[in-house]
Amino acid sequence: MTTTTSSIIDGNAFDEADPASLAELSPSDRDLVLRRRRALGPSYRLFYERPVHLVRGHGSYVYGADGQEFLDAYNNVASIGHSHPAVVEAVHRQMAQLNTHSRYLQRGVIDYSEKLLTTFPRGLDHVMFTNSGSEANDLALRVAEAATGGRGVVVTSEAYHGTSAAVTAISPSIGRFALGPHVRTVPAPDTFRLAPPEGIGAWFGARVAEAFTDLRRNGYAPSALVLDSILSSDGVVTDTSVLAPAYAAARAAGAVVIADEVQPGFGRTGSAFWGYARHSVTPDIVTLGKPMGNGVPVAAMIASAAVLEQFGTTVPYFNTFGGSTVPVAAANAVLDTILNNRLADHAERLGAQLLDDLRTLQTRHPHIGDVRGAGLFFGIEIVAEPGGSQPAPARARAIVNALREDGVLVSVAGPHSTTVKARPLLSWGQPEADRFITALDDALARTAAR
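Above: the chain's sequence. Below: its structure in token form.
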């Protein structure tokens, strides 16, 4: 039997097969882990060396079965805060009134769609609803293929775009076995370890061009370049010079550009609101997911009229739950909360302060090789030797688990699982920022000898 290691799933996973790991759990948690495996099967993973058994969430915090409070510095679902009252009320009110699909004429989905589209530049004209970011990316690939007549797709080498068959085939971080023959990967623009003379953006654009050329040489006409706008699974890339050359290379090859905004979107990366906008570029298709409903399954694909025309006029589209009334009510409450409370601007301000604080920590902890951030989205690169660039996955894992024990939840990313990845919620304020920096300082000190 062939097995594979997934950088996105296994980098911070609990080892259920290790008797010693199981023995360290409380009897009730150990029983729950064993029951979980029997019921759910072997594919699922739990976070952390000692899994967190959660029972409640409120604002920027979640709470364990034993009463321990955890600062959530990672969750990309409840982005405006756990159990947010506006979302709870909107879902309760709509569920008590009506919940049905979008083939009936309803005002809610139209009002929300018009409001959502105002956050995009002119030309990104239409929205189509799905249940998840995976479905949104799946739909985007279908639209791109209809628009271009090609199937060839280029992604980064540690990309993650979802779990359907089509998007697993363009998600190398899940495991290389899954890649389709119509897919080519390019190295992410590593702004820490790579300094090409032509500049990191030009270097990245050239790799994208080469990948499309190779696809065409092997019988796959170009269809799409799919990029998470902050390259989060590749280790969090925030340099704003990298997307424009890649977009240009894709379009020169005859492909369309799909911006996956499931992680960086809805203000998480700051006042630009959408991750791609930080780079002063406009994609042809944008996909949305996780934070859109603050925990209620709702996602969407945004597309230009020109790119959508071929698919839209030849393929009738319907999604039972995508665009249904209760998820749309949740999404509307989330968007109103972000816009009315200027949470994207808040993310910009608080994120800039946190980035300064993290760089101060870097001067005191030489095993931090690099710090990258945009808004409330950070990558903290952990290295083996001071002043070096050798990845240190065991050290990064130790830091993440030390934070877990101190009541702060983060995880890892990148090809070697050496980037400590932090995504503070938009509900964070100064107390949460201070607690995070203090806990990280302590975790770095406690793991320095490892």
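The first helix runs from residue 7 to 10.
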